[in-house]
Amino acid sequence: MGMLQSNKFNCIEDIKQLLNVHKTQVSEYVSQHWKEDAFFGYQFLNGTNPILIQRCTQLPNNLSVTDETVFPDGQHNLAEEMEKGNIFLCDYKILDEVESNTINGNKQFLMAPLVLLWKNNADQLMPVAIQLKQKPTKDNPIFYPSDSEYDWLLAKTFVRSANFNLYELNAHLLRTHLLAEVFAVSLLRNLPMVHPLYKLLIPHTRYTLNINFLARMLLISKGGTFAKFTSSGGEGALTILRRSLTSLTYSSLCIPDDIEERGLKDVPNFYYRDDGLQLWEIINRLVKSTLAFYYKTDAEVQEDTELQNWIKEIFQYGFLSQETTGIPQEFSTMDEMVKFVTMVIFTCSAQHSAVNSGQYDFGGWMPNSPTTMELPPPKEKGTITEKTILDTFPSVNTTVHAMSTVWLLSKQSSDSIFLGNYPEKHFTERFPLLKIKEFQEELKKLSADIKARNSRLDLPYTYMDPEVVENSVSI
Fold this sequence. Notes:
Elements: H1 2-5, H2 12-19, H3 25-33, H4 37-46, E1 54-55, H5 67-70, H6 78-83, E2 87-91, E3 102-103, E4 106-107, E5 114-119, E6 125-131, E7 142-143, H7 149-190, H8 196-201, H9 208-219, H10 225-229, H11 235-246, H12 250-253, H13 255-261, H14 271-294, H15 298-303, H16 305-318, H17 334-356, H18 359-363, H19 386-392, H20 396-410, H21 430-454
Antiparallel strand pairs: 1-2, 2-5, 3-4, 5-6, 6-7
């Protein structure tokens, strides 16, 4: 019982016992590889937060690294590697100076790191520099892989904790749950059941209002679950959501545009991109052919007041009428309507699956994704031991609480309905039904392709396999 009295883990083995309660193939893999730099880099592409990393063409002003510190072997230099497109950046500036939570009377710690990564000759993304706070000062050292084992591991762990807090609120809550609700409420307010867009979109709203009601009541409320076990719980969560709204642009919600903007078109082993782009294309074909059956001209789109009210309210209430988001306020062409509706279906199904379904896989092994950190980061190097890391990790009861929540959030419910299945048969005409059949065939083929690729990987990427992608945000 020693481990529970101090409420701190005495050794890494103690944490292993917790993982045994629920094991997945991935959480087991994570528990074996969490310390490896290559796996740390991999997770920015195929982990729970694939939307942050970007190609770096010029170093940020607040990160002063040199060729000597980043490439101590003298074999490479930054300018050349940037020129080749091999340098990447993850910048958690949204978390800068966010008021962190207090749990059991103890102040928690949430960093706003900058992570520089380099694609090596083996096509792995390797972290080469980590600065834990945005402002470069003497007591905010830049950590390197050449530092002592525990200094470097602790720096990476602070990044993983920041990542948990940012992606839960930004990638997951804001960009899938809350958006899906906006799309659904505007649909129910503006489109009658006989409208083709109602028929096309209603399956993608199933249970969304229910789950978000529960989330507001239990998860993100004052004194709710999030406030009990995360460093951003409480006031900080609202700050992060508010700031995240400014990064919520139309292009970032459309995966082809997003990948291009972040300069990630040809990064190797980026399965979120590969599967996501294919799903986008398949959904886009369904939307385009189905809506073209009902709308023959751009004028018909412009004159459909119900459709125009739907998009107007989304712009007004979902994006607070901010033109900088690039969200359309009206549809003047077929193409505009088709692209937006594709984004809506993709967001509610594929994107939610990508950021939701891996939560336990990557977070069940707590050291890979600590929900909070209980000690501040070191102000200088060379003082960290394994005990410091164990003391910085969330306490035992915080960890247990977090693990059970994340397990529940990533579990599929028994009555899930998966992409391409429409048991309620809203469409009756022959043509749209034919298109749905083609849609199902294409999804089947993509699923088989993904399974074939995964059979060759040590760590399969399954979250966008149509077989496990739900139609709607329902959990």
